[in-house]
Write a structure and sequence with these properties.
mainly beta; 6-stranded antiparallel sheet; 15 strands; 0% helix; globular
């Protein structure tokens, strides 16, 4: 198991240079990746990066959610609601009133299918064998007694790690 502290990670440009992101994990390191997990900031209506051969799941993290246009068809996503789409699809956010954040899981086709869901914790949580990462989204969550903050990720293998507390976590698998 490896714990990644969101607060210690650098901010990077999106692959199209139009936004900012913080990469939580990538496997394998370098390009091409089989899977990648990141938290992005959306500040205007800039197009998302075009990622051929990659399937994506996006989850808004800000309280107001996020409205996206998929091939110019708008769809509002509530906070912690996940949506899957192919990396080739034309996706643009409607301009948010204030910058928002979202969690992204990207999986190269042939390396699996991305799945991400939010879980409201009230007690203990034990990840299933197929889970790649657990990301803290809100609340007071611990892993093996260690306090975790917003955006902190715990990466597999978990080897019996115990999550506890009250809050919301995202569970990512492929």
């Amino acid at each position: 198991m490896r714990i990644v502290s969101f607060a210690d990670l650098p901010v990077q440009a999106w692959s199209n240079g139009a936004g900012r992101t913080v990469e939580l994990a990538r496997h394998p390191a370098g390009e091409p990746f089989d899977w990648r997990l990141s938290i992005a900031t959306v500040a205007d209506d800039t197009s998302f990066s075009h990622l051929p051969g990659v399937d994506r799941v996006l989850m808004p993290l800000s309280p107001g959610g996020l409205t996206l246009r998929f091939d110019d068809v708008p769809r509002h996503l509530e906070r912690f609601e996940a949506v899957a789409f192919p990396g080739e699809q034309a996706v643009r956010p409607l301009p948010p009133a204030a910058p928002t954040t979202d969690l992204n899981l990207m999986v190269r086709r042939g390396a699996g299918s991305p799945v991400m869901r939010a879980i409201a914790m009230a007690g203990e949580y034990a990840p299933a064998a197929d889970v790649l990462a657990v990301v803290v989204l809100d609340g007071a969550v611990t892993c093996d007694g260690r306090p975790l903050g917003f955006g902190d990720a715990v990466l597999a293998p978990f080897d019996g790690a115990a999550f506890g507390g009250r809050g919301v976590i995202a569970v990512a698998s492929r």
